[in-house]
Structure formats: C-alpha cells, structure tokens
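User: Fold this, then the next.

Assistant: Folding the first:
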Amino acid sequence: MEDPEREADVSELQRLVAVEEQRARLAAQVHNFMEVCWEKCVDKPGSKLDSRTETCLANCVNRFIDTTLSITNRFAQIIQKGGH
C-alpha cells in the first residue's frame, strides 16, 4: 500500500527539479545568445556603442526573445492538449 503523502512529496520534488532544470536551460540559452549576438554585432569593443552596433544588438536580442516566446507558447499548447 502506497502512502499518498509520500507520493505528493515525490511529485512536488519532481516538479521542483523540472523547474530548476528549465531555469538552467534558459540560463545556458541566454549565455549562448549573448555570445552569438556579441560575435555577430561587435567588431571592436570601445567605450561606447555606435548606432550600427546598437541596432544590430537590439535586433539580435529581439529575434531571440521572439523565438523563445514562440517556442514557449508552442510547448504550452502541447501541454494543454495533454502532451499530444
């Protein structure tokens, strides 16, 4: 016979681990995107960003955010449909 309280604790622990894994993946993605945008946009670091570099970085960040939101929304739709 299984203990319902223990099952609830295990379930909650699994949920917390999944949340932390997702946070770690997001942090890794942000780090990666920062490297990509930096390499793509910054020719030579200086004390100020020129307008071309600033525009490039803004566009790169916006593409990253749009892509991340699109993926997140798609996963939410899949979860709402019961994983199908």
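Now the next one, as you asked:
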Amino acid sequence: MAPAAVSGGSTLPSGFSVFSTFPDLLFVLEFVFGGLVWILVASSLVPLPMIQGWVMFVSVFCFVATTVLLILYIIGAHGGETSWVTLDAAYHCIAALFYLSASVLEALATIFLQDGFTFKHYHENISAVVFSYVATLLYVVHAVFSLIRWKSS
C-alpha cells in the first residue's frame, strides 16, 4: 500500500485504487454486510413493524448510498476536491449512528421474538443482529479514518 493510504491521506482515491486503499477498501465489506442485513430483515417475520421498518430503512439507505459513493469514487467524480472528503466523513458518521440505532432495535425485536415464534425466524433475526453489528463496526472504523483524512485535508 502507498504511504498515503496507510496514514489516511488527505485525498480520495479514484479508479480501482479504491479497492487498494484504507479505509476505502471497507466500502466492499459495508456493501456485503449491509446487503446481508437487508436480505435477512426482509425475509424474517415482522412482529414489530415500526422497529424492523427502521432497520430496513437504514440497511437499504446505507446500501444504496454506499453503492453510489463507491461508483462515484471509481469513476473519479470527486475530481480531487476537498468537499468530497467532508461528504465522505459526514456520510460515514451518519451511517454509523444509523446502523448503531438499527442494531440495538433489531436486537430488541429479536428478544421479543424469543417466545412464540418459530426457531427459523428467531435464527434469521439473530443473524440479522450479528451482521448489523458487524456493519456498524465497519461504518464506525470507516468514519474514524474518514475523519482523520478530513482533518488532514
């Protein structure tokens, strides 16, 4: 890796260097785990529509926004402007907060599912909780390193 990538350089990568720089490499993992949360929540039984509706909104919003940002970075739409560094840091901070709230609410919904629902639905929700917390961790790490990059820009 390039020294700027390790130290959290002040510019955003473009092209396929997005896949070789940290923290931008985390886009791929956020995409995968966010998609898993979306799939698991969509396929599970919904006993508490308000709670799981928020989890669904967060997972779909972050999945789509992460995909759009990844594509924009690959095509180099940012043009090296520092305003995109601010956008990247702000998005990942908001996504981390959204995912943290969604993870806690999904865990609460899973606790309520413990009695009276099938074993399969309970396990789907447990998987959604685990993947949601993994996605939260990824977004938090990405937010921290994006903030470091923002501060040095």
